[in-house]
Design brief:
single chain; alpha/beta; TIM Barrel; six-stranded parallel beta sheet; 12 helices; binds zinc ion
Length: about 300
């Protein structure tokens, strides 16, 4: 089975501990990914937590260095993706594909020049904020209805689109979302967010936001964090969010963005990425094989085939 997931914090976490990407006791590692899926694609987030805001650029560069060192150690089963040709080569050889993302724009230091350098370092997805305000935008936990993007944030989005970096609206304030939708001319992502109608958490998307992402050709990655799923979350709760997002946005707008190694708990019955096929079995019973394949991989694959050159 194919698999495409747009958010994990694994590389940021193992940079701190020195653990290996191939085998660790976290939610996600390459050993598990390669045993469960056929040529899976995983987006790895370089996340800056508030503790590191003052040294964000230094830290992001070191996390990216760690990612490439781990990629090199595992090159027989793993390949970093800069281009569509890289993705195709990995599919052909059955290797895992890795895509780099920046979560929280602090390492950019408000500078489009640094964004261009990060593009050269392999970054293809970028969010302006994590939960809090920075010089680019207001995040979900630090916003009032009047707070969206800054001028620097707008300039950053324009540069992302011209480079071929997909903007990510997960963690962005509601006003920021609508301002981003106005500025962006190309499809954009919500890499790890659920439906606010099902679970009223500001990290989740309203139906209107789901519709806008879908109409623009974007895709939403389902997040497995119980706080964004709802009380007593299990596979049926994940299914409810999936059903709602498909109802609101249609068959092409949903994928997976599990948030592995970024969350301190997971739904009942899910412990690692090895349990994802159980979710897909439930999807298949509910939505059928074709729709399940679109959620598991097809929709994000489509998105990235257009993004990557
Ligand atoms: Zn996140």
């Amino acid at each position: 089975m194919r698999y495409f997931d747009t958010h994990c914090d694994t590389i940021t976490k193992i940079y701190d501990t020195g653990e290996s990407l191939f085998a660790n006791n976290r939610h996600l590692n390459l050993d598990r990914l390669s045993k469960v899926f056929q040529s899976p694609v995983q987006v790895f987030a370089v996340w800056t937590e508030p503790l590191y805001y003052k040294t964000a650029l230094d830290r992001a560069l070191k996390v990216i260095d760690y990612y490439y060192a781990e990629a090199e150690k595992n090159k027989d089963i793993f390949g970093h993706v800069n281009t569509l040709a890289d993705l195709r080569a990995n599919e052909k050889s059955g290797r895992i594909s890795g895509i780099l993302a920046i979560e929280g724009g602090e390492p950019l230091c408000g500078s489009v020049e640094l964004l261009r350098i990060f593009y050269r370092l392999g970054v293809r997805v970028c969010s302006l904020t994590w939960n809090y305000r920075n010089d680019l935008a207001w995040g979900v936990k630090d916003s009032s209805p009047n707070h969206g993007l800054t001028e620097k944030g707008r300039a950053m989005l324009r540069e992302m689109e011209s480079l071929g970096i997909a903007p990510d609206v997960s963690h962005l304030s509601d006003k920021g979302f609508y301002e981003l939708a106005e500025i962006c001319e190309k499809p954009f992502l919500a890499t790890h967010s659920n439906a606010r109608t099902i679970c009223p958490n500001p990290r989740n998307l309203t139906d209107a936001q789901i519709k806008i992402i879908a109409e623009r050709g974007g895709v939403i990655g389902l997040n497995l964090y119980p706080e964004f799923l709802g009380e007593n979350a299990d596979v049926s709760t994940v299914l409810r969010h999936a059903e709602h997002i498909l109802d609101a946005g249609g068959e092409n707008c949903l994928g997976m963005g599990c948030d592995f190694d970024g969350v301190d708990s997971l739904p009942e019955g899910i412990e690692t990425v090895s349990d994802i096929p159980g979710i897909f079995e439930a999807f298949e019973r509910e939505f059928g094989k074709e729709q399940t394949e679109k959620i598991a991989c097809g929709n994000f694959l489509n998105f990235f085939e257009k993004l990557l050159v």
